[in-house]
From TrEMBL:
The keyword Transmembrane helix applies. It comes from the Bacteria. Belongs to the sodium:solute symporter (SSF) (TC 2.A.21) family. It comes from Paraglaciecola algarum. This is Sodium/proline symporter. The keyword Magnesium does not apply. The chain crosses the membrane at residues 6-24, 75-92, 124-141, 161-182, 194-215, 235-254, 280-302, 314-339, 372-392, 404-422, 429-448, 460-480. Keywords: Amino-acid transport, Cell inner membrane, Cell membrane, Ion transport, Membrane, Sodium, Sodium transport, Symport, Transmembrane, Transmembrane helix, Transport.
């Protein structure tokens, strides 16, 4: 690896660790300060940390790779994600920020579910915590694997060193500064991703003589790469079910704990509108840059008659070929930023669930704030070690399960979050069964040996669609057949509604 690239990456790691140390000195010693930053995030940090924790390595590798293979027909997923993110800011963010504070100052999603329905049986807390711990531990493992492979393929280091380097830096700043460190590093990482996803496609465009040059190169290939309604890889016209399946990725936003927890931490509900404008602008520009990287990358490969074995490495390839090694280090740092920002968020959400929803709820109800913060830090290390252990098996089927975690969270938590925020009539039993049936439907859709039109269920339509529908129907039917006896629930709901109306 070139010395300039090493210098650039070293500076990146130093900055991340420095932010962790700064956050450690600035953060409060109570559990709310460690897990939610004392509900004191600014709009810009809220927006970019939510975006960076959402857009993992798939933003710089997955989307460009899909565009490289299939052309503009892959853009439907990006459209669905932007719509979903916008509605998440519009519908969920203000109500959840108010509700979690009024509902006994809930600091985790399981905490919110239990307080929202006054669940003294703790069944909602237990089920939602199990879902979070299992899926996010696996999710974190996949991010560590991505980091290991990046170090191996780009930096010439061993896969194992890559695992420990990626996880080690993330654990260090998460352990030190908690939520504030994660959010601040996410902000910096979001800026790096933003710049990189503009810089790479623009430089390639100039090299290919603009849009006309790109179009000319793509037109020499078999398949229509510039058609929204045709998959260029097989020449087939996109079906309505196929388009709905891609757009439905946006449904997942309503149930992603590592994203919506940012809404709980913003310092004022009135600043959510500013955060929404920043966040959606960042997302639109970044996704367009990722899509463009795939298309212009394909045009560049075609013009130079080069060979690219893995389409998902097109961003890495262009970074190494077209830029000075110092800039290459910065661009490769963008991929690390995408990976690390998601890992850190997942580590903290899992840690907060282990600490608040298991340790404090069932083992040490009278634990001091200092003890809970220590428990949170121990949980971060424990989850990271498990993730590293799982990541040693690069061919593990765990990664197949993690690829469906978005659908699992979206179907299990999404409808419950939405109905709990907007429908007073919703009951505890409906929340529990809606969460359970949504998750089970996703698993059946993925693993059941059933077919529709000769395709597996998950190939026919993305599993979040049936999972979301089943969960929503369950919530409505069960709520209409059961009653909510606790009047304080209705009173809190009315206060939230009035607060939102007054904004």
């Amino acid at each position: 690896m070139d010395i300039f690239t090493i210098i650039s990456l070293s500076l990146y790691f130093i900055v991340m660790l420095g932010i962790g140390l700064y956050s450690f000195k600035q953060s409060s010693s109570d559990v709310e300060g460690y897990m939610l930053g004392g509900r004191n995030l600014s709009p810009k940090v809220t927006a970019l940390s939510a975006g960076a924790s959402d857009m993992s390595g798939w933003m710089l590798m997955g989307i460009p790779g899909a565009m490289y293979v299939s052309g503009l027909s892959s853009a439907w997923i990006a459209i669905g994600l932007v719509i979903g993110a916008f509605l998440n800011y519009l519908w969920v963010a203000p109500r959840l920020r108010i509700y979690t504070e009024l509902a006994k100052n809930a600091i985790t999603i399981p905490d919110y579910f239990e307080n929202r329905f006054n669940d003294t049986s703790h069944s909602l807390r237990i089920l939602s915590s199990i879902v979070i711990v299992i899926f996010f531990t696996l999710y974190t493992s996949s991010g560590v694997v991505a980091g290991g492979k990046l170090f191996e393929s780009s930096f010439g280091l061993s896969y194992e060193i890559g695992l420990y380097a990626t996880a080690g830096v993330v654990v260090a700043y998460t352990l030190l500064g908690g939520f504030m460190a994660v959010s601040m590093t996410d902000f910096v990482q979001g800026c790096i991703m933003f710049i990189s996803l503009i810089l790479v496609p623009v430089v390639v465009l100039f090299d290919l003589d603009g849009f006309s040059g790109v179009a000319n190169q793509l037109n020499t290939l078999d398949g229509n790469y510039l058609n929204f309604f045709e998959n260029a890889s097989n020449g087939q016209t996109m079906s309505l079910i196929g388009i709905i399946s891609l757009l439905s990725w946006g449904l997942g936003y309503f149930g992603q704990p590592h994203i919506i927890v940012r809404f709980m931490a913003i310092r004022s509900v009135k600043e959510i509108k500013v955060a929404r404008r920043i966040g959606i602008t960042w997302m639109v520009v970044s996704i367009i840059g990722a899509l463009a990287t795939g298309l212009v990358g394909l045009a560049y490969i075609t013009k130079t008659q080069s060979t690219l074995n893995d389409p998902e490495t097109i961003f890495i390839y262009l970074s190494q070929i077209l830029f000075h090694p110092l800039i290459t280090g910065f661009l490769l740092g963008a991929i690390l930023a995408a990976i690390m920002s998601t890992i850190s968020s997942q580590l903290l959400v899992t840690s907060s669930s282990l600490t608040g929803d298991f340790y404090q709820a069932f083992l040490r109800k009278d634990a001091s704030q200092k003890e809970l913060v220590i428990a949170g830090r121990v949980s971060v290390v424990a989850v990271a070690l498990v993730a590293i252990y799982l990541a040693y098996d690069r061919d593990s089927t765990i990664l197949d399960l993690v690829s469906n975690a978005w659908a699992g969270f979206g179907a299990a938590f999404g409808p419950v979050i939405l109905f709990s925020l907007f429908w007073k009539r919703m009951t505890k039993l409906s929340a529990l069964l809606g969460m359970l049936f949504g998750a089970v439907t996703v698993l059946i859709w993925i693993y059941a040996p059933l077919e529709i039109d000769g395709q597996s269920l998950s190939s026919w339509i993305y599993e979040i669609v049936p999972g979301f529908i089943v969960s929503s129907i369950t919530i409505v039917v069960i709520s209409l057949r059961t009653t909510q006896s606790d009047q304080s629930i209705s009173s809190t709901f009315d206060k939230v509604t009035q607060s939102v109306k007054s904004l």
